[in-house]
TrEMBL record:
Organismal lineage: Bacteria, Bacillati, Actinomycetota, Actinomycetes, Pseudonocardiales
One Gene Ontology MF term: ABC-type transporter activity
Annotated ranges, domain ABC transmembrane type-1: 11-268
InterPro entries for this protein: AAA+_ATPase, ABC1_TM_dom, ABC1_TM_sf, ABC_transporter-like_ATP-bd, ABC_transporter-like_CS, ABC_transptr_CydD, P-loop_NTPase, Type_1_exporter
Origin: domain of life: Bacteria
GO biological process: cysteine transport
One cellular-component annotation, GO: plasma membrane
Domain ABC transporter per the UniProt entry, residue ranges: 298-500
Organism: Amycolatopsis xylanica
Protein name: ATP-binding cassette, subfamily C, CydD
Transmembrane regions listed in the UniProt entry: 33-61, 97-119, 125-145, 205-230
Length: 500
């Protein structure tokens, strides 16, 4: 953005220079005669506007592409909000980048240049313009403070609506089975109505503020024009000077009016960009240590994790030897999944350290470290395509499918839907197991209750695949059922903080 502001400032200075030259030549045309230089200046102003539009458009396209990449690569469970921001949200940033910011920079440079020129032409007119020009940004700031809150609320409601709607669509089958579809439809309609109301309130403020700014600018120009008319009639001012001031005075207010007119569209875009920053903050790249591949040892040294003000883990000490299999058992909310998130690098400890073979995880190359982890979550994310593609993501997956007892599924279902349409819960879970099998170079295995929602027969199949998967790897298993815990060398009971 700093380079973008510098480019806009350069265009602003060139625009101000062309405006001053054009005003002088127009006054000369009306009092003395035609000059071909005026044609050159007008053509230069048109070319300058076209070049600025092209540069601004290219920057906006690049910025929107970067924002979308940031959203799509964000590690977030707010899928609905991410989808809304990646589509409508990023597009809403366009008026801010291509309209408001260029107008804002021009509104800073051009009025200053015009006022300086007016001081060399007529002191009284220059003082009037100097006194009235600040009124427009003052009123714009007052209106903008009110608009900012309304626009932020509008975007929060839109993101909430998008997220809830996506969840409803994904769970529509279950909602129909339990007779809750109509209730959720009413909820979506109510949220949509709230967003419409917020949008209309924002638009009303936009229209009223535009009226206020236009009225201020018109009255300010009149304060300059009326005295000049009387002085011209009395012979106290030359025609060239009078025309120069009358041409320049509106130019002092025009950029401010343009910035004010684009403020509300810009405020919407800025709110969308801030929502993107909140959802997917910019990652600060840092050089990390690449450990030698192999089966790792893991140590949690006095680890405490807070989500906001809420403690999830407190003073946790744990040592897991290379190749050891550890099962974590305990009630929901005791921090078992948070411990896995720590090892995946999704969460950083508030206090304490996570050591991998004696090296702080924060010092490791995170991408290289994650490449050494096979993770089986509670609900594996599935994509539209073949079962083998969902397992190997383009790499050979036949052996992994056979290891997870998925041969019959590969044959029977050549194509599956985005949320695993056509698959049972056990088959989805076995795809997660097969993905871990496909990670042949992974030395650490993390399993987050892979059998929590399976029947006894399916659980036995998944456990058999998991038992083979554990061989030769360090493993941490989050388990609720004794059958899963039986696969571990050691069982650790994790308690909620209120029971500690």
């Amino acid at each position: 953005m700093r380079s973008y502001y510098a480019v806009l400032a350069g265009f602003g200075v060139l625009t101000a220079s062309v405006i001053l030259a054009q005003a002088d030549l127009l006054a000369t045309l009306l009092t003395s005669g035609f000059s071909w230089l005026l044609v050159v200046v007008i053509a230069a102003r048109a070319v300058l506007a076209g070049v600025q539009g092209a540069v601004v458009g290219r920057f906006a396209a690049r910025t929107k592409s970067l924002l979308r990449k940031r959203i799509l690569s964000a590690e977030t469970d707010r899928a609905g909000e991410a989808a809304t921001l990646a589509t409508k949200g990023v597009d809403a940033a366009d008026p801010y980048l291509t309209g408001y910011l260029p107008a804002l920079v021009t509104a800073v440079v051009v009025p200053v240049a015009v006022i300086v020129r007016l001081f060399t032409a007529d002191l009284a007119s220059a003082l009037i313009v100097t006194a009235t020009v600040p009124l427009i940004p003052v009123f714009a700031i007052l209106v903008g403070a009110h608009t900012k809150a309304k626009t932020a609320r509008q975007w929060r409601l839109l993101a909430k609506l998008g997220g809830h709607f996506l969840d409803v669509v994904r769970g529509l089958t279950t909602l129909k089975v339990f007779g809750r579809a109509e209730a959720q439809a009413r909820t979506v309609r109510a949220m949509a109505d709230a967003h419409v109301d917020a949008t209309m309130r924002t638009l009303r403020v936009a229209f009223l503020s535009a009226l206020v700014l236009e009225l201020l600018a018109t009255l300010s120009v009149a304060l300059v024009a009326v005295p000049i008319g009387f002085r011209l009639l009395e012979g106290g001012m030359t025609a060239h000077t009078a025309l120069l001031i009358l041409i320049l005075a509106p130019e002092a207010y025009l950029p401010l009016r343009a910035a004010g007119a684009k403020f509300h569209a810009g405020a919407e875009g800025l709110a969308a960009i801030r929502e993107t920053e909140a959802l997917a903050p910019a990652m600060v790249t840092r050089p990390g240590i690449r450990r030698r591949r192999g089966v790792p040892g893991v140590v949690l040294d006095n680890v405490t994790v807070h989500y906001g003000d809420t403690p999830v883990l407190s003073g946790l000490d744990l040592r897991i030897e290379p190749g050891e299999h550890v099962a974590l058992m305990g009630p929901s909310g005791s921090g078992k999944s948070t411990l896995l998130a720590l090892l995946l690098g999704f969460v950083e400890p508030t206090h304490g350290r996570v050591l991998i073979d004696g090296v702080d995880l924060r010092e490791l190359d995170l991408a290289a470290w994650r490449a050494e982890i096979a993770w089986v979550p509670q609900r594996p994310t599935l994509f539209t395509g073949s079962v083998t593609h969902n397992i190997g993501f383009g790499r050979p997956a036949g052996d992994a499918a056979r290891a997870a007892a998925l041969d019959d599924v590969v044959t029977a279902l050549p194509e599956i839907g985005e949320v695993g349409t056509g698959l049972s819960s056990g088959q989805r879970q076995r795809i997660g197991i097969a993905r871990a099998w496909a990670r042949t170079d992974a030395g650490l295995l993390l399993l987050d209750e892979p059998t929590a929602r399976l029947d006894a027969g399916t659980e036995a199949t998944v456990l058999a695949a998991t038992r083979r998967l554990l061989e030769g790897r360090t493993a941490i298993l989050v388990a609720h059922r004794p059958a899963m815990a039986a696969l571990a060398d050691r069982v650790i009971e994790v308690k909620t903080l209120e029971h500690v």
